[in-house]
Amino acid sequence: MRTSIVLLIWLVSLQLPQAQTFWTEADPQSLAFPESARMDIYPQQYRTLELDMPALQQALAGAPLEFSTGARKAAVLVELPFPDGRMEPFLVVESPVMKPGLAAKFPMIKTFSAVSAAGKPYSARFDYTVQGFHAIIRTDEGIIYIDPFAGGQTQYYISYYLKDFDLESLGLPPMGCGWSAETAEEYLLPEEKPAQGRGLDILDETPVELRVYDMALACTGEYGQAKGGTVAAVMSSFNTAINRVNEIMTPEAAIKFELIENNDLLVFLNPATDPYISSNVGNELLDQNPSVINSIINVNFYDVGHVFTNGCVDVGGVAGGTVCSQNKAKGVTCHYSSSINHIAEQVMAHELAHQFSAGHSWSNCPDNQGQLASDSAYEPGSGSTIMSYAGACDDQDIQNGSDIYYHVGSLAQMRNYTTVSLGSTCPTIVATDNHFPEVDWPYENGFFIPISTPFELNAPATDPDGDALTYCWEQYDLGPLADMGSPVDDSPLFRSLPPASPSNRIFPRLQAILGGLSEEVEVLPTYSRNMTFRQTVRDNYPEGGGTIWNEVKFKATGLAGPFLVTHPNSNGIQFPGGSFQTITWDVSNTDQAPVHCQSVNIRLSINGGQTFPYTLLAATPNTGSATVSIPNITAASARIRVEAADNIFFDLSNFNFQIVPPTVPGFTFLVNAPLSQTVCIPGEVEIDFSSGSVLGYDSLLTLDIPGNLPSGVVAAFTDDQILPGESTTLHIDFSQLTFNQEIGFAVRVIAAGGDTLFFPMEFDLIYSDLSALAMATPGNGVSGLDINQIIFSWTDLPHVDTYDFQLATSPSFSEEDMVHEISGLTTNSYVSPVVLEKNELYFWRIRAANECAQSEFLSPFAFHSISLSCETYTSNDVPVGIPSTGTPTRTSEITILQEGTINDLNVINLVGYHEGIQQLDVFLKGPDGSQAKLFGSYCGSSSPFNLDLDDESPFNLPCPPNTGQAYKPAEPLGIFDGKNTTGDWTLILQVNDDYGAGGLLESWALEFCASFTPKNPYLSNNELLLVQPAGTRLIENVSLLVQDDDNTAEELVFTVVTPPQHGTLVWDSNNLAAGGTFRQISINSGNVWYVHSGDGSLTDSFSFVVEDGTGGWLGITTFNIEMDPNAPIATEELPAVKPLRIFPNPSSGLVRVDMPDVLSGDAQVRVINAQGGTLVLEQRESIAGGFDLDLSGYAAGMYWIQVQTERGRYSGKVVKK
């Protein structure tokens, strides 16, 4: 992780000299400018300064290159002027926007990136060029610009907040940008279109990647003249524009642009000789620019192309193609003002986003509806973000000009395009040391809120690098065209607001609620509808921002609301401090379905509703009334907030009230816990109470619970009598309860000679013991299940909310073995949508969960699908001709002599042709007269057919049916299931019209699959294995032996279902977990061991299934192990089995067995057959380097030779011919 930038900046600032200041205050009235100078920018407020440019350039010459080793530690410390008179220190690195070769041509043009040296949430990008110094600074107080006071000079500057600049002064036309969704689609080849529906808003913990795109930026001769008439002047404007766009896109989307090496060749200075025609018509420039750039720059040498021109008569700017595509140079920015910064942010950043596949975000803009992007129109009216039309939509305008950030919908489109679509194919990827923020997401989709009721969304995040985060909550609903303030269906209600440091947003804005204002740009739902919001979290890292988002979906319902505070809710109300008061509210059906709000919090503000620091009651029942203890304070502007404790909606009292000094003695009493709680049982709860004295009140307070407690509940106070100022705790024991239930009771507080208070409490008790969960069907060990009719079921526990289900081909349940899994089932049965395979062993398991607990997955059940044997029978009487006259019927037969019950029937290799296939009907007729139509009377005059027909195919019949693939027949072949295979099967070709077309049947065949009952392996030995504690013991076939009447020990495969819990099962030096396999021959040959862990356990076990490879299997079986100090002693360490060299192999008689080690002493030699039987067991006094063995008396087959010596174990395999 990157070191916290705040800490890093602080450390660096300690090591650097005092920040260098190159700015001095200047009096705007006394400035002297050359005649060519002109003032282009007119902020309402600004600060005027003089810059010592040579000194600044000299200081910045020492700035290290960004991303170079230790760049931030070696950063240059420079002060930048803020509009309010401050000089703020920044750490500066060079951040070029020109490739090295291009930069070498223009050494007078430099670009820099900076962060606050004081640890403040400030970042900046600036440059110096032949046109002077330009900077943009992002702060938590707003965006700051530093621009030349006037063009044509480089000595004097203004520093101003963007909010003090009237964008109308730019003269931006009210016309749109010329982009349309349909046009953008046309410019994308099919393989270039961005992927849809990719969930890219959830990111892993990898570092943020910066994507650098090489830009070819051209200009018309008119633009070149307007910017100074020299290549250096124009390149200066290019540099400033790209730097400004990078300041937006790099922290927002981790995208950066760099001008290509020979970009100066794209600068045209003479309108009469430049290659552009109609330089003031943006749509014409759009089509001309690719050919202009590609005639000068190789099309493979840039990623995105764009052209600058002066004001256009048809558009403000326009884009067509997208980066990395064949039309990557289709981008135009029209400059209506000489302010490079503002045109870059208001026009160029918009058009470039189009080139990254982002659509318009506005939803209603009269006269521009042809440019509506229906799949990204998330903002009401004109919108206000970069991809909006703010200022161009008449009465649908939210504001003049766009705020300088992208809507989350635009960010999602750009991320999708740059990470998984075509835009990912051409950039240079730069790994940064930044990481994405991590959000603590509190919401689940699907809840309801009442109509006409304010609500609040909040999700805090942390940044692993310590960056200052900003948050932006935006509506993410698409709906039909609607005027602002008058939504229809799911059209957007709420405008986007710029990112800010609070992690919450109140809807509508708090000041509107407090002032009782109604605004068209923020409208609460007044009818039932869907609501979707996304929270975007930005870390604003200047070298590649980590931006993430999360989404919540809920609904407004007309069955509830408005939810309203009713008291205090008028002018002139006074509450004495330290008094008890009744707060009331209109529940308005919010306690009923579908909102189901059972409890509310009551909170107090003493600053007119700006904040609510006092919680008077937490999670009190949503009954519409509650008694609260007013703090013993005074306040002139108090308000009450009643908010759902388990939802997002709330209401505020409409008027301020006063809290005045008390006049009579009394006491305060607070419940320091929610009055409504969910409790996991068996369990206990403690609730703390505190009290206070008002004006010296000192009478005893008595606490009790009136009436009888619910059965099984035990409650007691630590002290049931206290004096004001003392505290007590109520202890409630629910450990005797064993099922879900809701209970309630009240705590009573009796004051001697004073008030009696009641505090109603409600508890939702959730039973957390899930041990009764059990699996039912298919039962463990069931065989022959129909693959299309399997119902999985288990016990229905009333206190369970959801079940998770898994189905796999291995008890490991690994990703590669998983057949199907699903979470969140709410019933105790499930039918898998996956069609299972025939002749396959499956494992399934479940687990349960409720609000309090989640069980482990149960030990799996195993079942085997139906065992089928398939045979193919081919027609021998083809070809069969089909006459071209009349309406003939022709047949072909297949006679089957074998007897069997049909489980599945398919027609395969049906090949032929007919000149009028729509006049041909084809049927299959069985021996018993049953008949199914295969195809016919469709598909025009297409001639050939070549196909298979299978009920289980997912495909319907195509036209023409000549692909050779399997399709569903016109009528199901399942009518033959369960019938006998024996007899004559007839293919019928019937011409149904005398059109005069003929044809030919070339081939056909039948594939029959009939069920059979395989012979299963059976358990011969399953004896308790005794093992010394912490010892090792060989598992031999005298302890564990599975046999099969028609399969060898080599073919019997054990699969571990549950491994040992207190030791390790080992095969041939491999530790076996669930899903691990070994064979019976491995046991027979001494290659399976159990190793005890020495953890003090006395027993252990493992379970397994056995398959024979031909459909037979042995169900889940347990092998038991017991620790016994008197068990036979095994070798202390797991033996490594060494290979024997046996030759000749195969052999018809005598073989030589070579030992890999030189041995002395006795050896035990064992010969084992494929069934696991021991044929030879003998002691040899000395085998030295090897020995001979005669196999001539053995039957042909495979044998294992084992040798056990004091040096170890040896094994080898030999084939007897």
Give the helices and strands, then pairings.
Blueprint: H1 5-15, E1 23-25, E2 47-51, H2 53-60, E3 76-81, E4 87-94, H3 100-105, E5 110-116, E6 123-129, E7 132-139, E8 142-148, E9 156-161, H4 181-187, E10 207-219, H5 221-226, H6 231-253, E11 255-259, H7 282-296, E12 304-310, E13 317-319, E14 331-335, H8 340-354, H9 408-419, E15 428-435, E16 438-439, E17 448-450, E18 455-458, E19 461-462, E20 470-475, E21 504-507, H10 510-515, E22 529-538, E23 547-557, E24 564-567, E25 574-576, E26 580-586, E27 599-605, E28 614-621, E29 625-629, E30 635-644, E31 650-652, E32 657-660, E33 666-671, E34 676-681, E35 684-694, E36 701-704, E37 714-717, E38 721-722, E39 727-733, E40 741-751, E41 756-767, E42 775-777, E43 782-785, E44 792-794, E45 802-808, E46 818-825, E47 829-830, E48 841-849, E49 861-865, E50 868-874, E51 880-882, E52 889-896, E53 902-914, E54 920-925, E55 931-936, E56 944-949, E57 966-967, E58 983-991, E59 999-1011, E60 1018-1022, E61 1025-1027, E62 1032-1034, E63 1040-1043, E64 1053-1058, E65 1063-1067, E66 1070-1071, E67 1077-1079, H11 1080-1084, E68 1088-1092, E69 1099-1107, ...
Parallel strand pairs: 10-11, 10-12, 12-14, 17-23, 25-32, 34-41, 43-49, 56-57, 61-70, 71-78
Antiparallel strand pairs: 1-2, 2-9, 3-4, 4-5, 5-6, 6-7, 7-8, 8-9, 10-15, 13-14, 16-19, 18-21, 20-22, 22-23, 24-26, 26-29, 27-28, 27-30, 30-31, 30-32, 33-35, 35-39, 36-38, 36-40, 37-39, 40-41, 42-44, 44-47, 45-46, 45-48, 48-49, 50-59, 51-59, 52-58, 53-56, 53-59, 54-55, 54-58, 60-63, 62-68, ...
Helix pairs in contact: 6-8
